[in-house]
UniProtKB/TrEMBL annotation:
Name under which the protein is recorded: Regulatory protein, luxR family
Keywords per UniProt: DNA-binding, Transcription, Transcription regulation
Domain HTH luxR-type: 172-237
Biased amino acid composition, Basic and acidic residues: 1-10
Residue ranges of the region described as Disordered: 1-22
Family annotation (SUPFAM superfamilies): C-terminal effector domain of the bipartite response regulators
InterPro entries associated with the record: Sig_transdc_resp-reg_C-effctor, Tscrpt_reg_LuxR_C, WalR-like, WH-like_DNA-bd_sf
Top-level taxonomic group: Bacteria
Species this chain originates from: Amycolatopsis marina
Molecular function in Gene Ontology: DNA binding
GO biological process annotation, one example: regulation of DNA-templated transcription
Length: 244
């Protein structure tokens, strides 16, 4: 169920036919929950540049924000940038750690920090999705804002925390030995002479994701060029692992 809030009229000059705030409830019935998730999925499907996901892993956080969705992986495949921020304890929370690793494997940038001060999701820097609570004080709904002031405040807080957060590196992926399976496949293709474009096609990911993965590998290796990265990867036995 979607509830439009024509309030804010006294503070903002937007016309009533274009409400700036949409609240999606997610706790009344299973049917309502499906509606909330579907509404958020539909909005995420419109992303063209970047999706920011921030979770405090709070028990009272709105579930739709912290969920891991199929649409996220579909967005990553078509080149939408994802930045995902969770508390450090996510690294040792089995279900969450596995999901974050899956996102990182798909090309998302994942970081953690000691404490995350909010739960939020931002789409293309235009829409901010925040937790919402009903009149009974129960949380589980979400509020979608496109008020520039709300979006800017949300992004500003995220950027401050993100800049000091620690990346989730491949070595921390369960079962990893320094590279994710996708990174090993990519290195194998590139070392065999594939271009970024052909490697992207073979892996069913975007060229932008390929280049982001290469940049991450180079950073992890301390390499300033792809050639240097190739030498260092070979020294570590990564290319042997990929071809074996």
């Amino acid at each position: 169920m979607t509830v439009h809030a024509p309030e804010f009229r006294s503070h903002h000059s937007s016309p009533p036919s274009h409400p700036r705030l949409t609240v999606v409830r997610d706790h009344a019935t299973p049917q309502v929950a499906v509606s909330a998730h579907a509404g958020l999925d539909a909005k995420l499907a419109t992303a063209t540049r970047e999706v920011v996901v921030v979770s405090s892993m709070s028990a009272t956080a709105a579930d739709p924000i912290a969920l891991f969705r199929r649409i996220d992986h579909e967005n990553l495949r078509r080149g939408v940038r994802y930045r995902v921020l969770f508390p450090d304890r996510a690294r040792v929370t089995p279900f969450v750690a596995a999901r974050l690793s899956a996102l990182a494997l798909s090309g998302a940038e994942v970081r953690t920090t000691g404490a995350v001060p909010m739960d939020a999701l931002v789409i293309d820097g235009k829409f901010a999705v925040l937790p919402s609570e009903g009149q009974d004080g129960r949380q589980g709904g979400i509020a979608m804002f496109r008020l520039p002031s709300v979006v800017a405040a949300t992004v500003g807080l995220f950027e401050r925390v993100w800049s000091a957060a620690v990346p989730l590196v491949a070595d921390e992926v369960p079962g990893g030995t320094g590279l994710t399976e996708r990174e090993r496949e990519l290195l194998t293709l590139l070392s065999a002479g594939c271009t970024d474009e052909s490697a992207a096609a073979r892996l069913d990911i975007s060229v932008r994701t390929v280049r982001r993965m290469v940049s991450g590998i180079m950073s992890r290796l301390g390499a300033r060029s792809r050639f240097q990265a190739g030498v260092k990867a070979a020294d570590r036995g990564w290319l042997v692992e990929g071809t074996g």
